[in-house]
Design a protein that fits this description.
The protein is α/β, with parallel strands linked by helices. It has three domains: 329 residues, no CATH class; 30 residues, no CATH class; 153 residues, Glucose Oxidase, domain 1 (3-Layer(bba) Sandwich), CATH 3.50.30. 38% of the residues lie in helices and 13% in strands. Helix 5 packs across helix 12 and helix 7 packs parallel to helix 8. The longest helix is centred in the first third of the chain and has 17 residues. The chain is globular and about 70 Å long. The mean pLDDT is 94. Its EC number is 4.2.1.12. It is an enzyme of class 4 (lyase).
Length: 604
């Protein structure tokens, strides 16, 4: 193993020792003494199989594995629309192995693409807690000996995984549905967005470009949070090998779901190959998720999600760990917005089988984890294919089919993973360097302060930002307003940068996996609403942001800085259901811990 990866892993193991042991004790008790079909009363059990049709005798008899399906299906969200028919298929696939399956429950599936820039985006991060709790409700009935999680997008996979980990005695596999086929080239979409921001094209032309980009069933094809989720599940060994980026509606996609169903019947607690989720997701698997994120230039949202997932399994990881791992993880993929091609081109170039083979081979990823499929992560470096009607797996390609998108560890795009921690008198923040030209990694400029991204866009349109400037959007953290993404700013900031100005964003909010080319210090912690120093800033203050040195400072006299009062939090949190989430805003913890109200309240 790489010595830094080994050192960080051992540090996480030592730091997590007591919490991890308590978690393992919990799931051991859940298997041996928890709620399960054997423990249900006759009335309980009768309710559980009353509507099971042909599967009723098998479920009633208790001799066959019953798979609990937790689904994020809805047909408004393109990524989750394919899941509508999955339960029917999974039940058939389960019967092929003498097992049964039931839909344990559904969870919300919020589309950040639809809510981006809207008030309802303030529900997005907390939807992860809601999803975790909904998954827990479904699995709490004690009717199941394993679980299958159907979900893809931003908060949905982390939420499903957090909820399922509290039932970590159950063998569990996550089932992707794949990305939509490639549409309008991403650079062309970006070009039209910037033209619209400048007022050079109208809404109809913009809508046409967007519709040509987001045009069918499947995940959006850029390498944002949704597709980063799939990458991480492969790096943790929780998918069938190579299954992340197979398009919906194909025979191969269906056969991978069949293979996952069959595999669940082989790793239950009645056999000799028991693989409970809580043992699969250990400290090494969490480190693998981080390494994959860094090596592929994945979404910055995961510096919130990974700590939250880890906490649900009794593991503590922080931003120092991620920063140190980034220093030794080479960037071997450039997928839009970090490159020109999308995830379909990435998959065609070699995709996750190539990435896993490279990272394990270089000692950067832990091979010795308990995967759902084989002896270790190395067995996940396989490319699925169809041989007539049969599913087969090939070894990962020896060479990348496109070295502008995917490269070996020996000749990376850059020597580090491009996810840097910046710290100073303003707090701690994340800077994603992999998407930003190196000459823009340092900026020193006066700030212009806003408490709403719409006000910043209005100032841009009024010509008030035509200069070197650091745009500050504050009171955007979990406690203030639920920590919405601020992706609406991207076109305007991109235009200013293209006009030759030095521009950056500083915020205690999020910017997502599609943050693009403008330097940004995001997830600033502590947030303004919890006494963070961003609430001290005044228009015109000079701020220096330097990813090279990992610093973030307001260049204000120390005595004056210490004496400055904090600005008032302006948000009321009323409308579009936001008032129902007030308890979450009141109890949410800091971004570095995952920004979760649920985990904070549970003392995890």
């Amino acid at each position: 193993m790489n010595p830094v990866v080994e050192k960080v892993t051992n540090r996480i193991i030592e730091r997590s020792k007591s919490g991890r042991q308590a978690y393992l004790d919990l799931i051991s008790q859940a298997r041996d003494k928890g709620v399960n079909r054997d423990a249900l009363s006759c009335g309980n059990l009768a309710h559980g199989f009353a509507a099971s049709g042909d599967d009723k005798p098998a479920i009633r008899g208790g001799k066959a594995m019953n798979i609990g399906i937790v689904s994020a299906y809805n047909d408004m969200l393109s990524a989750h629309q394919p899941y509508g028919r999955y339960p029917e298929q999974i039940k058939i696939f389960a019967r092929e192995r003498g097992a049964t399956a039931q839909v344990a429950g559904g969870v919300p599936a919020m589309c950040d693409g639809v809510t981006q820039g809207q008030d309802s985006m303030e529900l997005s991060l907390f939807s992860r807690d809601n999803i975790a709790m909904a998954a827990a409700v479904g699995l709490s009935h004690g009717m199941f000996e394993s679980a299958m999680l159907l979900g893809l997008c931003d908060k949905i996979v982390p939420g499903l995984l957090i909820g399922a980990l509290r039932f970590g005695h159950l063998p569990t596999i996550l089932i992707p549905a794949g990305p939509m086929p490639s549409g309008l080239a991403n650079k062309e979409k970006q070009r039209v967005r910037q033209l619209f921001a400048e007022g050079k094209v109208g809404k109809e032309e913009l809508l046409e470009a967007e519709a040509a980009s987001y045009h069918g069933a499947g995940t959006c094809t850029f390498f944002g949070t949704a597709n980063s989720n799939q990458m991480m599940m492969e790096m943790m060994g929780l998918h069938m090998p190579g299954s992340s980026f197979i398009n919906p509606g194909t025979k191969l996609r269906q056969e991978l779901t069949r293979a996952a169903t069959h595999r669940l019947t082989e790793i239950g607690w009645d056999g000799d190959d028991y693989r409970p989720l809580g043992h699969c997701v250990d400290e090494k698997a969490i480190v693998n998720a981080v390494i994959g994120l860094l090596a592929t230039g994945g979404s910055t949202n995961h510096v919130l999600h990974i700590p939250a997932i880890a906490r649900a399994a009794g593991i503590i990881i922080d931003w120092n760990d991620i920063d140190e791992l980034s220093s030794v993880t080479p960037l071997i993929a450039r997928v839009y917005p970090n490159g020109s091609g999308d995830v379909n081109y990435f998959a065609a170039a070699g995709g996750m089988p190539f990435v896993i083979r490279e990272l394990v081979g270089a000692g950067l990823a832990h091979d010795d984890i308990l995967t759902v499929y084989g002896k270790g992560l190395r067995d996940g470096a396989k490319q699925p294919d169809m041989d007539g009607e049969a599913l087969i797996w090939h070894d990962a390609p020896a060479l990348s089919a496109d070295d502008t998108m995917l490269r070996p560890v020996t000749s990376p795009f850059q020597p580090d993973g491009g996810m840097r921690l910046v710290t100073g008198n303003l707090g701690r923040a994340t800077f994603k360097t992999s998407a930003v030209e190196k000459e823009r990694w340092t900026i020193e400029a006066p700030v212009r302060i806003f408490s709403d991204q719409n006000d910043a866009v209005a100032a841009f349109k009024a010509g008030e930002l035509e200069r070197d400037v650091i745009i500050v959007i504050r009171f955007q953290g979990p406690a203030a307003n639920g920590m919405p993404e601020l992706h609406k700013l991207t076109p305007s900031l991109g235009v200013l940068q293209d006009r030759g100005f030095k521009v950056a964003l500083l915020t205690d909010g999020r910017m997502s996996g599609a943050s693009g080319k403008v330097p940004a210090a995001i997830h600033l912690s502590p947030e303004g609403a919890r006494g963070g120093a961003i609430a001290k800033l005044k228009d015109g203050d000079i701020v220096r942001l330097c990813a090279n040195k990992g610093t973030l400072n307001a260049l204000v006299d120390a005595a004056e800085w210490d004496a400055r009062p904090l600005a008032a939090v302006p948000h009321d949190g009323i409308g579009t259901g936001r008032e129902l989430f007030a308890i979450m805003r009141a109890t949410a913890d800091e971004a570095e811990k995952g920004g979760s109200a649920m985990l904070a309240a549970a003392g995890l």
